[in-house]
Amino acid sequence: MKRFPTPIVKPLWPFFIAAAVTYYGVSKFADAYGNTDEYINDPRNPRFAKGGKIVDLTKNKETMEE
Amino acid sequence: MPQLLPFYFLNTLTYGFILIMILLVLFSQYFLPMILRLYVSRLFISKL
Amino acid sequence: MLNLINTFINSPLDQFESQTFFSIFTPFMDMNNFNITTFALYTFIVLFIIISLFMFTNNNNMIMGSKWFITQEMIYDTMVNTIKNQMGGKLWGFYMPFIYTFFMFILVSNLLSMIPYSFALTAQFVFIISLSFMVWLGMTIMGFYKHGLVFFALFVPQGTPLVLVPLLVLIEMMSYIMRSLSLGLRLAANVMAGHLLMIILGGLLMQFMSINILTTILGFIPLLIILCVVMLEFAIAMIQSYVWTVLMASYMKDVQYLH
């Protein structure tokens, strides 16, 4: 198949910057959202693959109350 | 909603952006110029 | 034999759940984002379909393609006319491949998700909304790069009385910022609502028709209505990709020419 030298980066560079910014923002958001009380003990959480331990949420609350 | 499970956010974004990037290169350098060249060659045969 | 009576669906939302097929694990780097999930599998399928639609149909670059190639020429003509009419001027050619990419991606993945038991790529809210946010942010950067501070003239419609300008700028700016969300939310919510509607109606009818022989025969009347709903979903799958294209082209026009 013949290749034609259509410019891609020249007219569309703002979108690549925007894609990088979006990727970074979503990664931060996913990290923060995955560490909330709702999902921190979810068995699908990837930190268990690295040998993470289950966080006891009730204990934390009791210590906070004290 | 299962879409809002945070462990798959970056996975979808990674593969989605890679797909869009590959498609962009394919379309702008291979497929769309192919159709345009086809139209131009038809024009040369019939009208000019 | 397939036991259809005992095959039941736990929740209508199960169809949007992605699963990990195999994960890549290295001790020194987080490769979690490159796991092969359902989403990744369907991106491969979309890529394969689009490549084969162009490569296996062009009849070895003859002057006439095969019959399947006529669909591609038709889509090309439609896109060129739409983008040219929406954007106007001379700059539409630079951005046409970009908009075309989105059109084909959304069209193919929407139609692929209409196959029963398959997975809807465009119902993944986070991916679609970040895609639309990416488009919006790129256009904003482009507008500021091209026009500088004159870009803010976009927020003042022509012929506004001077008294109304502060209020109108506020409203226009709100609507401009909301574009980033609404473009993606429209697509994802439409696709998700359609798939939920089909699976709920189908499940109800499945239960109704499996009571006895009489209800099986009677059930063919609501089945016609469900058939209409499925046809509507096919229409929505195509219309939504077109809507995305038209809106993206008109936003691009706003940024390039300011009104």
Automatic annotation (TrEMBL), chain A:
GO terms for biological process: mitochondrial proton-transporting ATP synthase complex assembly. GO terms for cellular component: mitochondrial inner membrane; proton-transporting ATP synthase complex. One of its GO terms (molecular function) is proton-transporting ATP synthase activity, rotational mechanism. PANTHER family: ATP SYNTHASE SUBUNIT J, MITOCHONDRIAL. This is ATP synthase subunit J, mitochondrial. The gene is NCAS0A06260.
Automatic annotation (TrEMBL), chain B:
The keyword Transmembrane applies. It comes from the Eukaryota. GO terms for molecular function: hydrolase activity; proton-transporting ATP synthase activity, rotational mechanism. Its main location: mitochondrion. InterPro entries: ATP_synth_su8_fun (IPR009230). Keywords: ATP synthesis, CF(0), Hydrogen ion transport, Hydrolase, Ion transport, Membrane, Mitochondrion, Transmembrane, Transmembrane helix, Transport. It is found in: Mitochondrion inner membrane; Mitochondrion membrane. Pfam families: Fun_ATP-synt_8. It is a single-pass membrane protein. The chain crosses the membrane at residues 12-32. The keyword NAD does not apply. GO terms for cellular component: mitochondrial inner membrane; proton-transporting ATP synthase complex. Belongs to the ATPase protein 8 family. F-type ATPases have 2 components, CF(1) - the catalytic core - and CF(0) - the membrane proton channel. Mitochondrial membrane ATP synthase (F(1)F(0) ATP synthase or Complex V) produces ATP from ADP in the presence of a proton gradient across the membrane which is generated by electron transport complexes of the respiratory chain. F-type ATPases consist of two structural domains, F(1) - containing the extramembraneous catalytic core and F(0) - containing the membrane proton channel, linked together by a central stalk and a peripheral stalk. During catalysis, ATP synthesis in the catalytic domain of F(1) is coupled via a rotary mechanism of the central stalk subunits to proton translocation. This is ATP synthase protein 8. The gene is atp8.
TrEMBL record, chain C:
InterPro entries: ATP_synth_F0_asu, ATP_synth_F0_asu_AS, ATP_synth_F0_asu_bact/mt, F0_ATP_A_sf. Pfam families: ATP-synt_A. GO terms for molecular function: hydrolase activity; proton-transporting ATP synthase activity, rotational mechanism. One of its GO terms (cellular component) is mitochondrial inner membrane. The chain crosses the membrane at residues 39-57, 92-112, 118-137, 149-171, 183-205, 217-243. It comes from the Eukaryota. Its main location: mitochondrion. It is found in: Mitochondrion inner membrane. Belongs to the ATPase A chain family. This is ATP synthase subunit a. The gene is atp6.
